[in-house]
Amino acid sequence: MKLVLQLIVILCCSMLSNAVNASQGQTESLIVVMGEDSFPYQFVDNDGEATGLLVDLWKEWGKRTNTPLVFVARHWNESLQQLQQGKAQVHIGMGQTPEREQLFDFAEPIADVSTYLYLHKSLQGKKSIKELVPYQIGIVSGSSHEAELRRIEPSLVFKYYESREKLLAGVAAGETVVFAGLDGYLRDPASSQAIAGSFPISARIPIKAMQFVPAVMKGNQALIEKINKGFDSLDARFVQQTERRWLGYHGQKAGLVVAMQLGVEPFVDLGVDGLPHGFYVDLWQLWSAKTGINVDFISGDMNASVNDVRQGLADAHIGYPESDELKTGLTRAWQLYTVKSRLFLYQQQLTDLQSLKGKRIGVVPTAPYLVALRKALPDVTLRYYENMDNMVAGARSGEIAGFVAAGAWTSHYLLQNKAWSEFHQYPELEFPTDVYVLTRSDDPGLTQRIANGFRSISMQEFAEVEQKWMLNPKDRIFNQKGLHGIQLSNSEQDYLSQLGELKLGYLKQWPPMEFSDEQGEFAGINSDIAHILAEQLRIKIEPVGFDDWQSLISALRSGDIALAGSVAQTAERQQFLTFSDPYWPSPWGMVSQLEQVSVFNLAQLAGQRVAVVEGYHLVAQLMALQPSLKLVLVPDTQSGLAAVNDGHADVFIDKVVTLASELKTGQYPLLKMSLLSDLADQHSHFGLNPQYAQLIPLINRVLAQIDQHTQQQIYSHWVSFSLDSDNSQYLQWIRYLLMGALVLSVVMVAVLVVNRRLNVEITRRLAAEKRLQHVASHDALTQLPNRALLDDRLSQALLAHRRDHSHFALLFIDLDGFKQINDQYGHPVGDALLLKVAGLLSKAIRNSDTVARFGGDEFVILLNRVQDLDAATQVADNILHSLASPFSVEGVMVEVAVSIGVVIYPRDGDTAIELMKQADQLMYQAKMAGGRCYRVA
Q1: Confidence category of residue 479, pLDDT binned at 50, 70, 90
Q2: Left (φ > 0), alpha (ψ -120 to 50) or beta: where does 457 sit?
Q3: What is the pLDDT of residues 860-900, one digit of tens each?
Q4: What is the mean pLDDT of residues 123-135?
C-alpha cells in the first residue's frame, strides 16, 4: 500500500512538472481576424478552412515565432469591427488608408496587390474612371475601394454588397456592369466563366497599387514589433513559392519567364524581327490573355532551355517532347500538343514498307519514338544524326534512304532550304509525340495555375491557332480529319449508343439561322451544324419546331428537348442549362427607317422605343446597359421589322445574319440595318439540358473542327438561297424602273429648280420651329428642361415602368439660403449660382435621367430604372457632397446647401401628382431639420 501511494505521488509530480513546462514553453494563441471571401488572398474554402496567400504567410509566421494562431473569418466590414471591438488581436491584412490609420496601428506590408474596376465588355471604350460616373459601381461594403475611388472622382455612385460572393451574384444577374475588385478577383475556379468572359482583363481600369498590411488596436506596439520581426525572418524562397501558388507568378516580377528552344519552326523560333514566334508562342500568348499574367521568353537550344527551368532561370518550358523513356525530371504541367513524325524518303515514293527492307533510315538519337520506330521497321537499320542538316546531307550522299522527323518541322525546313521537291512523305507511317509544358517539382502552385490557364482556352481557340501554323491538315490534331468523323473511345461510343434519338429544338421562322422550309423540314445554318454533329458522333437527331423563343427555352429547361442551337450563354441560363463552346459568330444588329440618323451604339438609343423578340437574353442586358430604353416586346423577327416599318418602334434589334436575310427579300425597302458596336462580340452556343452534360465535350470536339472555310460554305449556301428565290421579280422591277427613270428625269430637273428656294425656306422654318419648341420646353436661364417637359417625361416614365414592373425615383431639391444670396449680392450672382448648381446636378446623373428646373430655386431629378431606394439616396448623397464646400461665383465666395425629398415609384405613389406632392413634403421636412440633408418616406 505504501508503495502504491509513493507511485501516485511520483506520477502527480511528473504530470504537474510537464504542465508547468508546457505552459512556459508555449505562447498564448493569437486571434487573427480575416475576410472570408477575398480570393485569392484571404478566404474560406469549401471545407470551411481559412486559406489564401495571406493565410499561408501567417501560418509560416506562426511557426517562426512559435505562436499558435486562431483564424476567425468574417464578412469584410465585420472583420474590421471585430478588431475595433477588441474581439481579435490582429487583422490578417488590409489596405492602409488615412481613415483606418485613425482606428488602428499598422505593421510593415506583407504582400502587394493592385485594385481594379472590372468593366463589362460593352464598356471597353471607357479608359478613365471619370467616364464611369453614369454607372453604379458594385463594391463590397467596408472595402477601401470606395474611399480611394471617391478621392479620384467624387461623383461616382456605388451599389453595396455584403460580400464578394453576393457582389459576383449581382454581377451575374446584370445588376451592375462595373465593379471593384483585387487583382486575381476572377481567377477563382468557383467564379462563373460567363462573368470572366463578359468582364475581360483587357477592359479593366486600375484604381491603385496597394499593399496588405497587418493591423492591431491602437497602442499595441509590442505586437507590431513581433509581427514585423516574424515576417522579416520568412525565407524569401518560401514567399516566392507561396505567391506562385496563389497568383501564378512571383509578385516581384512582371510575369512568367518561359524557356524556349530555337530552330524548330513552325512550333517555336525567333522571327526576322528578333522576337519569339511560332505555334507554341501564340498558344502561350493566348494563355497570357486568359490569365492576365505577362509572359517573357528566354531562348536557347533544347538542352539549355530545359536546364534554364531546372536552375530556376525560367519558370516553365514552352513545350518539350518528353516520354516515359526520355525523362527530364521536371513536372508535366500540361500536355500542350501532339507532334506527328513521318518518314521522308529521298527522291523516291514508297508504295509499301517491305521495299525498305535492308535499307538505312536516319533519326535523331533523342527522338521519343525510337522504340515504336524499331517495331514498325524491324528490317531497317537506324543511323543516328545530331540534327536535320546532317540527315539531309546523309540522304543526298546515299548514306541513308531517308529519315524520320516531325512532319511540320521537316516540311518547313525543306521549303526554307529549297529541298522540298527532293523528298517525299510516306503518310501511312506516323509516330505521335506528346509535347508538355514543364515546371519544377517544387512549385506545385505554379503547375496548377498553368494548367488552369490552358483549360480556359476553348477547343475552337486551339484549332484557330493551329490552323494558322500547321499548313498541312494531316499535321493537325484538332481538325486533321476535316468533317469525316472524330476518334471515339469505347466508353464514349457506349454512351452515345445509349442516348437514343435526341430532340433538337429550333424556331420555325428565324432564317437563315433556322426555319421550316416549304416542306416543313428543318432548314438553315443550324440544320447543317446539327447534321455535322449527327454524322460525326453517329447519333440520331429529331428536329422539333417552335413558334417562339420563350417556348423553346422552356422546353429545353424542362427536358422536353435535349438541345438547341444559337443559345446565348448567360449567368442566369447557366443555372439550369449546360453549354457548348461557341461555334458561330452572332453579333447583334439594328434596323431603323431610312430617314433616321444612323446609330452604332446603345448610348445613341437613349429614350427611344426599341423592339426586341420576347424571351431573348438581350432584354435584361439592354436594361442594364441603357436603362432609359423603352422596350417593345415582339413575338418574332417579322413582327419586329413590321413594328419599325409601321412606326410602332424606332428600332428593332436582332441577329445581323437574320436581319440581313430578311431585308434582302425586298419586303421592307424603307428600312436600313447597322451593326451595334456594343454587342458585336457575340457568339452562338448549343444549349443542352443538364442530363446531357456528358455530351458537351464530344460536341466541342466536333465544333472545333468547323473551320472558317466550312463556316463560309454553310453561310453562302443559305444566304444565296434567300437571294435567288426572288431574282426574277427583281429583274422585272428593274426594267420598269429604268423606263420610268427616263420619263421622270426631265420632270425632276424642273421640279428641283422650282423647289430649291422652297426647300431653303422650309429648312429655315423647321429650324425656327425647333428653336421655338426648345424655348417652350426648357428653362431660359439654365437650359434645363422646364416644368412642362418634366411633366411629359414623368408621364412617359410612369407608362414604361408600370409596364416593366420596375422602379424610378424623384428627387425634389430646394436651395437653402438662396434668397439671402440674391438679396446680398444681386441677381447676376444669383443667376450665376443657379447655373453652377444646374451644372453640378447634371453631372450627378446618367444620360438617361432628367434634371429639370421646377421654378425659382427648386429643381427636380427623375432617375429612371433604379434598382432600389439605396441607388436614389446615393445620388442624393453625391449632390450633398458636391455642394458641401463654398465655391466662387462671379468672384464672390458663396456657400449654399440643399434640402432634398426622395420618393420611389410605385412604393411612394403611383401617379405623377402623388409622387410630386410626397417629394415636396419630404423636401420641407429636410429643410425643417436644418437643411443639408435628404428625407425619405
Answers
A1: low
A2: beta
A3: 999 998 888 888 998 998 899 888 888 888 888 888 889 99
A4: 82
Question: 794-818, pLDDT tens digit by residue?
Answer: 888 888 888 778 889 999 999 988 8
Cell 481594379, located at residue: 116
* Distances 433 to 405, 462, 475, 785 between C-alpha atoms, Å: 11, 18, 12, 72
DSSP string, 726-769: THHHHHHHHHHHHHHHHHHHHHHHHHHHHHHHHHHHHHHHHHHH
- pLDDT greater than 70 at residue 32: yes
Q: Are 610 and 622 in contact (CB under 8 A)?
A: yes
* Residue linked to cell 542538316: 389
Task: Please name the residue that has the C-alpha cell 467616364.
Answer: 131
CB of 145 closer than 8 Å to CB of 152? no
Burial zone of 540 (CB within 10 Å; 0-12 exposed, 13-18 middle, 19+ buried): exposed
Q: How far is CA 513 from CA 507, 635, 676, 714, 908, in A?
A: 9, 17, 19, 10, 47
- Confidence class of residue 11 from pLDDT cuts 50, 70 and 90? very low
Residue 395 to residues 347, 398, 416, 419: CA-CA distances in angstroms? 9, 5, 17, 12
Non-local CB neighbours of 696 within 8 Å, separated by 6+ positions: 578, 579, 580, 688
Decide if 445 contacts 332 (C-beta within 8 A). no
Centre a 10 Å sphere on the Cβ of residue 190 and count the other Cβ atoms it contains: 11
Q: At what angle do helices 525-537 and 708-724 cross, to 10 degrees?
A: 140
> Which cell is 314 given?
525560367
pLDDT of residue 764: 62
- CA-to-CA distance for 107 and 222, rounded, in angstroms? 11
Torsion sign across C-alpha atoms 157, 160, 163, 167: negative
- pLDDT at residue 730 is higher than 60: no
The answer to whether 348 touches 424, Cβ cutoff 8 Å, is yes
Evaluate if residue 18 carries a pLDDT over 60: no
Q: Pairing between strand 316-320 and 255-261? A: parallel
Among residues 60, 79, 78, the alpha carbon closest in space to that of 69 is found at 60
**Is the pLDDT at 737 greater than 70, yes or no?**
no
Measured CA to CA, the distance from residue 850 to residue 862 in angstroms comes to 5
Element (H, E) at 5: helix 2-25
The mean predicted confidence, pLDDT, of the chain is 82
Are 862 and 852 in contact by the 8 Å Cβ rule? The answer is yes
Distance CA 405, CA 373 (A): 11
CB 273 within 8 A of CB 297: no
Return phi, psi of residue 785, to 5°.
Answer: -55, 140
CA distance 92 to 110: 10
Round to whole Å and give the CA distance between 248 and 258.
13
pTM for this prediction: 0.44
Q: How many CA atoms lie within 13 A of 321 on its CB side?
A: 19
Among the listed residues 512, 519, 513, 503, the one whose alpha carbon sits nearest the alpha carbon of residue 552? 503
For residue 230, what is its C-alpha cell?
516574424
Grid coordinates representing 573 are 441560363
DSSP state of 539: -
Would you give the distance in Å from CA 712 to the centre of its chain? Answer: 27
Q: Which residue has the higher pLDDT, 235 or 604?
A: 235
